[in-house]
Amino acid sequence: MKPYIYAIGDVHGEYDLFQKLVAHYDPSIHQLVMLGDLNDRGPRTKECFLLGMKLVKETNAVYLRGNHEEYFLQFLQAPEDWYAPYVRNGGKETFESLLHPGATEEYSPTEIAMMIRSRYPELIDFLCERPLYYEWEEYLFVHAGVDLTKKDWRQTSDRDFLWIREPFHTGKNNTGKMIVFGHTITPMLHGDMQTTDLWYGDNLIGIDGGAVFGGSLHGVVFDQSGIVQDIEYQNNEGSWRG
Questions:
Q1: Calcineurin-like phosphoesterase domain spans which residues (predicted)?
Q2: What is the spatial distance between Cα 115 and Cα 195, in angstroms, rounded to a whole number?
Q3: HEC string of 55-76?
């Protein structure tokens, strides 16, 4: 077992920030865990997806499924049903990154799905196989959270692993685990819509600094006793849009 975990929060197509954090990754000592949502909203989903897949295949990194990977896969399964909600939540940027700018104006949802399926079969198979959580020592890494009302957190529904918010953030954590999660941006958790620092709850650590909204992307190094380093890169390309 490697002595450190290196956890990266929600990337959302911010490839330049993702690259900066990956530059700190040393596969000889770090177990890399990407908390999901590498796609949507930001401009470079294709590069983020492909780098995430490469890191898993070449260095045994862990890439957890997020709700936005789920959105993408649901769209591919039923494009006419999922097109409108997916585009509202950042799917347009993903389509244009995987295909070309203007693709959403040129093609129907079914045509977009067919082209993505034909061009990226390996990526789609890879995304379908992503796990929902990762355990390491006394830590649990997950995209959104777990159902803290369950006697065993492993009985959490797939939907809650990907989507849960308020009940998880404010609930009593009796899991015996320190739970590290993304999904809900820390400016929202801090309650001021501007603080991008890590957020701490009841043995909970939120690490999604809202990079794609003009916040920051976190890479957090853990050992068995706690946080060793928090590497934070601000997104200076745009102002905070919280």
A1: 5-187
A2: 40
A3: HHHHHCCEECCCHHHHHHHHHH
